[in-house]
Amino acid sequence: MAVRVHELAKEFGVESKVVLNTLKDMGEYVKSASSTVEAPVVRRLNEEHGEALRAQGAKKSGRKAPAQAEAAPAAAPTQAAAPAAPAAPAAPTPGPAAPAAPARTPGPVPGPRKAPEPAPVAKKAPAAPAAPAAPAAAATPAPEAPTRTPGPTPGPRPSAGGARPGNNPFSSTQGMQRNTPRPPAAREGGSGSGAAPTPGGMPRPNPAMMPRQSGLPGPSAGRGAPGRPGAPGRGGPGGAPGRGGPGGGGGGFAGRPGGGGAPGRPGGGGFSGPPRTGGPAGRNTRGGTQGAFGRAGGPVRRGRKSKRAKRQEFDQMQAPAIGGVRVRKGNGETVRLTRGSSLADFADKIGADSASLVEVLFHLGEIVTATQSANDETLLLLGEELNYNVEVISPEDEDRELLESFDIEFGEDEGAEEDLAPRPPVVTVMGHVDHGKTKLLDALRSSNVVDKEAGGITQTIGAYQVATDVDGTERRITLIDTPGHEAFTAMRARGAQATDIAILVVAADDGVMPQTVEALNHAKAAGVPIVVAVNKIDKPDADPTKVRGQLTEYGLVPEEYGGDTMFVDVSAKAGTGLDALLEAVILTADASLDLRANPHQNAEGLVIEAHLDRGRGPVATVLVHRGTLKVGDSIVAGPAFGRVRAMLDEYGNNIEEATPSRPALVLGLTAVPGAGDNFMVVADDRLARQIAEKREARERNALLAQRTGRRTLEDFMSSMEKGETDELLLILKGDGSGSVEALEDALAKIDVGDEVALRVIDRGVGAITETNVMLAAASNAVIIGFNVRPQGKATELADREGVEIKYYSIIYNAIEEIEASLKGLLKPEFEEAQLGTAEIRDIFRSSKIGNIAGCMVTSGTIRRNSKARLLRDGSVVADNLDFSSLRREKDDVSEVREGFECGLVLRGFNDIKVGDVIETFEMREKPRA
Ligand SMILES: Nc1nc2c(ncn2[C@@H]2O[C@H](COP(=O)(O)OP(=O)(O)OP(=O)(O)O)[C@@H](O)[C@H]2O)c(=O)[nH]1
């Protein structure tokens, strides 16, 4: 599973931005310290830059020697791992789940991969004896232990291991879509097999894994946490003891706090860990977790206030001063903050004064007020400085906690093994431009429709199902209708993954091209198996063999060459090979994935497309992951809710219910959700509304935090020098997610230079609401309505608040106007225009008005109001002068032309000589290109 940048940074012992920059240099798309990084990328990072980063980290911690000496080992995983490794063989008796463990982790692969797990534990808590590591180690197959070498990737690797939740390591991941309930052993013990290893970072299917997959993951496989070595033992009030406590926590084992006995949260804190598995321990510690839901954590406040004040005074006496500010430093306690928390929230959690945090940040070069929403990086920076382990709760975790507060669990199949039924694979078509993705989707749609009788022409709802005959059985496949990996990646970036299998289209006449590789990498990063469609084989210059050879270099080895990737030659144009392609998809799914879901529960799934339909209101195409969605269900989808009024299939037919992997167009939502939002059926409308409202509020906060951005002192200074940077803030509303995205993309491409920036602070589908207007008013933004109008009192409010709303129905017009207004924000640019020159022929000295130059105008005109410079022997003696007097004969004049004599006085400048040249010029505004 993915780890976050700051977690990686912690492991290397460097600042997040160092890792961030390294990743960016590697071409990875990472935005902030809380961006997630997939296991393969982590591996690459380790291979390519691991040593350098660690060296840097070691240097850094060395520098801080006296104060943070204890932190030094953290930067040296090798040292840290050393004590842990021996602990493994010494492990007395395996943990409760251990007996099962070897069976679940067959093959030598898991051994070395899991090896680093103890490392983070030891790393994070260097002071902790080896003992706590033992249970964790014990949980891994003992024979493997001695062979362990502390790999270079202590943290992330285990996470990759833990990243395959559910019985289906390749399917929709992110912990949201685990399909099989975990066996009790795993739940209770949590340790053993938690790692659910995938083969050495290669997310390829491996049939050997099958039996294990179906019985897997312990809580460790939960999302997020397993990969975070820092996650174990989230400090409750006890703070420090939590760290490094549950030994298992380190590597993604994590299940139970039993290991270390510390009051930390069970290390993994997996998706479902706390509610289901933690038992009382889990619950209690969760309660102790600092303010996950608003309640401030921090020290327990008891006793009289004056006493506390005294205590604080005492603490502060010992507190190191940061730039003259005294703030009590932490001991590495974990502080959990939601996105967009303010410094006041932070201060509240650590029992400090928010003003001093503002000051600390100021000394670190950031200007943030106490109540302003701070962005993730700022919170992490502050945490690092004050020695707190700040965890900015990820959007997914936040949502999970939000749902938990309603006692709802998302992403799990209910019931037991026997409740699961097979479901069709969901497939995305990817490939290079013009290699035939669209054509292939069209061909598959028209030739393999499920119900030829009923349908006829399919409608574009974002996905459709086809059927194919494999070994005499009709098998269905759900195809996502948006070709290309962009949509796939965009969804994944939101923590959603709809795809089980990717069809990689490669034109046989063109071969592997840049986007082929890109698509391939995206699929690999997501752990999605690939079936290659070698397209356009009807073309005379088609060379399917070459394509096979080329892809082999990228690790896709055709089955016929002994590999495990199926290659199928097709012609989307001629319609050949389509059945074979579908069969290959089914065979690949059968071999590497366990696609089952419980159809008898409340439906859950993903929104894959949504827009506002003029006649029908908000419509959303959803893909059911588990359960059965029925007309009449109360549903919440992202920040939208409602009741399913009607459902349509891809033929436009009304359907009463949609089973797993079935795409359906849902009518009846109150708002338009975003593509990639999850949806679920809840008990009643009221609950749906409450969840939706909470999500919307949360989203707004996060947006505000984003908006406040990170403005450093340096930025501040440089913009001051430049005369302040200007920014045009926009809120985009449109009639469909496609148009809003298109508009935003186009706007992002407008470039009028560095001085003026354009930032879209919110976007959405549907009418312009009062909320939009409020946000615009609060942030001085302009609202762009694309084919939409205001709703309710939005116009009134906009008038009152002075918010500008602009309406467009043609993207081009919107872009043109916005570009023009951006240019309007530009400060005028001036250039110098030469006006004339005059030569000093004589000098008249006057005590009253200074030296008067008697001149002959040698070119152009000398104007009274123009600027002047004095040249002597070709060099500038004085610049930017102006005239206090210009006369012709005895008259004051405003200008004198070439060939005439004049007398002039330079204001405040008397050092003139005969023969000097006076050059005059004026500054003219330059038209913008
Ligand atoms: N001869 C031949 N031409 C094909 C075949 N498949 C697609 N084409 C042609 O290739 C061109 C590109 O096909 P598209 O389906 O638009 O390709 P795409 O990958 O969807 O392209 P983008 O959407 O631009 O990324 C079209 O002119 C198709 O007619 C095929 O099997 N044989």
From TrEMBL:
Annotated compartments: Cytoplasm
Family matches, as Gene3D superfamilies: 1.10.10.2480, P-loop containing nucleotide triphosphate hydrolases, Translation factors, Translation initiation factor IF- 2, domain 3
Region of interest: Disordered: 51-321
Keywords: Cytoplasm, GTP-binding, Initiation factor, Nucleotide-binding, Protein biosynthesis
PROSITE patterns noted in UniProt: G_TR_2 (PS51722)
Biased segments, Low complexity type: 65-88, 120-148
SUPFAM superfamilies: Initiation factor IF2/eIF5b, domain 3, P-loop containing nucleoside triphosphate hydrolases, Translation proteins
Domain of life: Bacteria
Residues annotated to bind GTP: 431-438, 481-485, 535-538
Transmembrane segments: none
PANTHER family the record matches: TR-TYPE G DOMAIN-CONTAINING PROTEIN (PTHR43381:SF5), TRANSLATION INITIATION FACTOR IF-2-RELATED (PTHR43381)
Family membership noted in the UniProt record: Belongs to the TRAFAC class translation factor GTPase superfamily. Classic translation factor GTPase family. IF-2 subfamily.
Protein name: Translation initiation factor IF-2
Gene this protein is translated from: infB
